[in-house]
Structures are given as C-alpha cells and as structure tokens.
Model the fold of this input.
Amino acid sequence: MRRSLDLFLNNPQLDATSRSIAEKVLNEERITFDEGVYLYDKAELSFVGALANYIREKRHGDKTYFNRNFHLEPTNLCIFTCKFCSYSRLLKQKEDGWFLTEEQMMDEVKKYDDKPVTEVHIVGGVHPKLSLKFFGELIKKIKAYRPELHIKAFTAVEYDYMFRKAKMNYQEGLQYLKECGLDSIPGGGAEIFDEAVRNEICADKCSSDQWLDLHRTAHQMGIPSNATMLYGHVEKSHHRVDHMQRLRALQDETKCFNTFIPLKFRSGNNEMSHLGETTIIDDLRTYAVGRIYLDNFAHVKAYWPMIGRQTAQLLLQYGVDDIDGTIDDTTKIYSMAGAEEQSPVMSTREIVELIKAVDRHPIERDTVYNEINDYKDHVFEDDGFIELPVLYS
Ligand code: V47
Ligand code: SF4
Done:
C-alpha cells in the first residue's frame, strides 16, 4: 500500500511542499486550502495519485463498491437555464420534452418487479406543475408497492423550488417527505459553490448557501446525502478547492455525506459546448485531490456513465472506491451531453469484470454502503449479460 508512496518519499528530489503534504497524510492530518491548490497546480500527477491511492487502500483495501439501482426521471422540462445542461428543455420547447404521470412512473417502477435492485434514484427538471404534494404521493406509492426499495430523490435545487411553492421551510418540507418514505438525497445541483462562477454558469437556481443549508437540514434530520462537484468548465483550481473546503466544513458539522462525486463537464449540446472538455489527466488529478482533501468523506465515487468506463477503471488507482452502478435505461442526462460513447449498457457481470481487471475487489452495496454481495470469487453461471441489463445514459 505504501510502496508507491515510499518511492516518492525516498526520492531526495521530491519538493518540500509535496513532502510536507505526504507527511500530513501519513499522520492523518488535514491539508490546507493552499496545499490543495498546490496539488492541482504544481505537484506531479504520479505523486498526487500515489497519495490518493494510499488513502483509498488504507480505508478500503481493494474493495470497490457498486450499486444496483434504476433512475426515474419525472420530466426534462425545467424552468432553470443552467448553461451546462444538455438535458433540460425550457417549458416553451415542449416538442422534445417529456412529463410522466404518476401512473407512468409507477409503471416504470413495476418494470423492476423481478430485478434485484435496491435503490430508485429520482431526479429531473424543475417543473412548476410537479408540486411537493405530487412527489409526496409518488414516494408513498413507491414505498407501499416495494417497501424495501431505498428512495434517493431530488436535488437541493428541486427541493428549494418545491418547498418555496408549498410555503414550507426546508425542515418542514423534508419532514413531510421523510414521513412519505424519502430515504436519502443525491448530490446534484452543487456545481461549483464559488458565487461568481455559479453566477456565470447557473445564475437562476438555488445559491450555494441554500444548497449547503438544505443538506445540513437533511443531515440534522437523519437523512443522508451525497455531494457532487461539476468541474472542467470555466472554474479554476482554487474554485474546486473552495468547493471541497465548504463540503469538508459541513461534513465536520454533520458527518452525514455518504460520498463525494466529481462530475466532469461534458460538452455536447449545451450552451457551454464551445469550452470543450478537460483532459483525462485533469480527471485523474481532480478525483485524487478530492480523495486527499476530503479526509472526512468515507467514499469517492466515479459515475461511469458520464466519465466513461476506462477512465472509471483508471480512477480506481486515483482515490476512487465506488463505481456507480448498474443503472436502468431510462436516464438521459449525460447521453444528451455526449458522455459514454460505448454502449451505455453494463450488466452486473461487466461491471464486476471491469473492477477485477484492475485487481480490485467488487462488492455490491446498498445506498448507505452496507455490503450486499461479494463478487471476489463469484462465478457467473450463465453468460451474465442478462442478469440485470442496465443502461445508462
Ligand atoms: O447537478 C448536468 C450534472 C447533475 C451536465 O448522488 C452535468 O448518487 C456534466 O448529481 N456535464 C445531476 N454534468 C446528476 C447528479 C448525480 C448523478 C449520479 C449519481 C448521483 C448521486 C448524483 O448532473 C447536475 C449537474 O452537475 N450535469 N449537465 C453536463 N453537461
Ligand atoms: Fe434544470 Fe437541473 Fe438542467 Fe439546471 S441542471 S437546467 S436545474 S435540469
């Protein structure tokens, strides 16, 4: 575990700042904002990777988690105008927009009747007709139909809007949904917390403070959540570190974030397409710095449908311990932005083989990281590809 890190430490030419950062990590001390920026801008990638891998292996060994879930997307119509979004259609562009009724959404849920999924992830555009009551009823119906299914639903952006419309504060709105059956909150909508950058890329949706407040309130009520960071567009490295700094501070308070998920900006079909995409080298570094900086987060997740399978595989040596996941074929958010050029379908067998190919140990988990199935020595009896056909987009 330490061997590759020792190679750097034994090298007298390792610069003093890198050495001092490594010593902090070895002593389980926290690195500073400036050191985070240094890891982005000055440190050698192989050193940053070795450090992140050291932390990852110290915490999880070779274990690599995945989850069998499916996505439910009520609508792609959205009142907001995030410039990076390839997915939403403004309310006036109804031609290629969709809007599912409660019955249609229950039909989606029923498609998984005989599939061993453990989670439904509900996320979509912000539509004025989809009220708190509507979603509360939907959650109740799903819970009544399949009580053991974990419901991870809606981003802080959606909550901020639906609670305001219902004239409830975050605590009241979340309490109502928790009573309906809400189990946890996904990490979307965080983007980049720096106010100037946020204003440039997604000026009209909830603010950074509101995003953080919503998650704080959820955590105080025992509702866990994830945190994302959208990177590789107009932001600079200090904005990324500032983002992680705010997440680290909140996690110190609540300890209720499950995982950190960097999301690479994908440039297809959106108002920021002209920016192009950042490099794989930057991807590796971004995840690795995330692993090092967020010393109070248990997990760092690479969402393979958007980062791509091969980069996700590489990231397992750069701090990542989770590849989400086996996912249903209805979600469209990233395919519309040009991610995952290969087939967006991955069976359980494929995900297990992908993890094993880089000598990691595949574990199926539930949403809150209870281990469900250990695939280390598992032999697939059939060709495996029909076990759970999954698709992402
Ligand atoms: O907030 C939108 C991102 C997020 C693009 O918590 C884009 O387990 C890249 O947060 N390029 C929503 N990213 C999805 C999300 C998520 C996904 C998977 C798992 C979890 C989890 C959360 O998608 C948005 C935004 O940051 N996004 N457009 C784009 N062009
Ligand atoms: Fe709407 Fe979310 Fe797209 Fe922003 S990222 S436009 S809030 S669907």
In short: The first helix runs from residue 3 to 9.
